[in-house]
Amino acid sequence: MKTTVKNLNNEEVGEIELDEAVFGVPLRTDLLARMINYQLAKRRSGNHKTKGISEIAGTTKKPHRQKGTGRARQGSTRSPQFRGGAVIFGPVVRSHAHDLNKKVRKLALKTALSTKLAEGKLVVLETAAVDSHKTKDMALRLKGLGLTSALIIDGANLDLNFVRASRNVPLIDVLPEQGANVYDILRRDTLVLTRNAVEQLEARLK
């Protein structure tokens, strides 16, 4: 399938053939949901923690004798029913990451790319390189392209001026091709790929 290639001035400068094996995959929301859950679980810090009874500072002495006081029997003031006591079955430091088959992850990325193309929200740029690092100039160019919420993916090596100029534009993200992922693609309205990014993604995902 062919699509138009534009430059940063919103001028058509040619066409590019998109591989159907990468950009023509049927929509599968179950795969996208699994991949997003996988990514978000993997980035959780998992550093929540409460103290168990063995970690509470305090005496191990029995508070009072077992019988004859009229009070409930107690074995420790570090028990959960006392103020400052332990938490039973509380959270511990752990990793929330879970496994997801490599083929599933690869197919999910293809599905995300195909979804953007099917929705008409895929733009292909000739290059993502500018002479100036000024945010004002970049904001005007993006406005001319009609981009208000977009993920821009370039080849392996990003243009430093382009990255600096777009860094402070709201809802605009810039990633190299190797950083392309389902979550970032779906969280922005429009996906922008450079010609280099298309070639490298097709080589990686075919």
Explain this structure.
The protein has 206 residues and is α/β, with parallel strands linked by helices. The chain has two domains: 2-44 and 97-205, Ribosomal Protein L4, Chain: A; 50-90, no CATH class. Helices cover 34% and strands 15% of the residues. It is built from seven helices and six strands; from the N terminus they run ββαααβαβαβαβα. It has helices at residues 20-23, 29-43, 102-118, 135-144, 160-166, 182-187, 195-205; strands at residues 2-6, 12-17, 122-125, 150-154, 172-176, 190-194. A six-stranded mixed sheet has the order 2-1-3-6-4-5. Helix 4 (135-144) packs across helix 5 (160-166). The longest helix has 17 residues, at 102-118. The two termini are 15 Å apart. The model has no long low-confidence stretch (mean pLDDT 94). GO terms for molecular function: rRNA binding; structural constituent of ribosome. Pfam families: Ribosomal_L4 (PF00573). Part of the 50S ribosomal subunit. Belongs to the universal ribosomal protein uL4 family.
How are the secondary structure elements laid out?
Layout lengths: L1 E5 L5 E6 L2 H4 L5 H15 L58 H17 L3 E4 L9 H10 L5 E5 L5 H7 L5 E5 L5 H6 L2 E5 H11 L1
Parallel strand pairs: 1-3, 3-6, 4-5, 4-6
Antiparallel strand pairs: 1-2
Helix pairs in contact: 4-5
GO molecular function: rRNA binding; structural constituent of ribosome
Protein name: Large ribosomal subunit protein uL4
Subunit structure: Part of the 50S ribosomal subunit.
**Helix content, binned percent:** 25-40%
Strand elements, count:
6
Distance between the termini: 15 Å
H/I helix tally: 7
Can you tell me the residue ranges where pLDDT is under 50 for at least 5 consecutive residues?
A: none
What name is given to the CATH topology of the largest domain?
Answer: Ribosomal Protein L4, Chain: A
